[in-house]
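Question (not urgent): is this output format expected?
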Amino acid sequence: MPTAKPDTSKWLVAAWPGMGNVAVLSAGYLLQKLGFEAVGELPPQGRFDIENVDVHGGLIETPRLPRNLLFRHPEPAPGRDFTIFLGESQPSTGSYGFAHELIEAASRFGIERVVTFASIASQLHPSKQPRVFGAATSKETLDEMARAEIRNLEEGQIGGLNGVVLGAAAKRGLVGVCLLGEIPFFAAGVPNPKTARAVLGALAQLGGFRLDMTELDKHVSAMDTVMLRLLEKLQSEQGITIDEEDDAEHEVGTGEKDEEASRPKPAPTLDFATRQRIENLFDETRRDRTKAMSLKQELDKLGVFSQYENRFLDLFKRAE
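Got this back:
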């Protein structure tokens, strides 16, 4: 892939929860790796509502409205002058007004373009590399994306603030870009670090900068395994099928490894405290699926994933 010329404009990268949690994973990883700090918050009053409360040990916890935070690097580097916005939830009402409030709040940092992330559900097999599509507010920006080898989203809609904020950006004369990563349709509720990695790669290519993906890569193979097992479970129970081409680039494992993995192993014995910790992790993941990787890592570390596999996969049967 050709190296893009570094982009020296100032960007607002905005993200909200969505399918595969791709947007939040991507933006969250970006601000973590680049050492960003919170610099502001948009007030939630009038835009959000409380739809449920959490219960622990029979006690109802005091609810709070979602937070909407702006992040910056203390000393932005040329070509990496980003303002990053992370919202915990999409507004219950007034999305277009909220989008303008966000752009107004970020305008003090001199932003010139707005970038959002989104997901496209498709027949993608979990073993395949996801494609990244792009949509923009100008023909010139589409040409930039073509040079970065990002495919156009020819037709369709971009739902929620991932799209609405770009409409608000265009209204204010700012460049707007949405990078859309492909995810398996049956796993819309599963956190997808592979697609997040692909989206971040497209962003880096478009902006002409490098981003170390090592930490994100650690989660890719683990979640690929989860999605492959989920697909097998759905194929068995509901007859869902996805064709996988016979392509060596996408092979998973080898015959020897598969045979080794199929050998029965004695199940470890867990004490009460450990089982309670696992139950707490299941409860946390049920409320917030971004915790899935922590749960999976804990079950793998204890060597008990096979005991809890069905329960783990059931967490992601239905996208919400």
